[in-house]
Amino acid sequence: MLIRSASSSKVITNLKECWMTEISDLISGVPPMVPPLQLINHKINLIDPTKCIDYLLPKFLDALKAELTEKISHYISAGWWVPAMVQQAVPMLCVLKKNGKL
Fold it and tell me: Are residues 4 and 49 in contact, defined by beta-carbon separation less than 8 angstroms?
């Protein structure tokens, strides 16, 4: 059986606050712009020209289209996404958070 004292609860609270402050840049949402280039930069090429994907067009709730459009324009203006014309693309999976937002 573990018995917590008032001082251990205070220590836990202080640790939690320190950790949240330390990772605030990771949990604060999408930055307004792409971070500057570093000494070593990585690129992941996701395009395989030999692969042909056959799928049905996905359906999306009309109620969430405005929020998705806002997110897309935010990512494009921040430089995270770059619009491109392609012959084929895999559909994006939109997952709702617990609060009902994308």
Answer: no
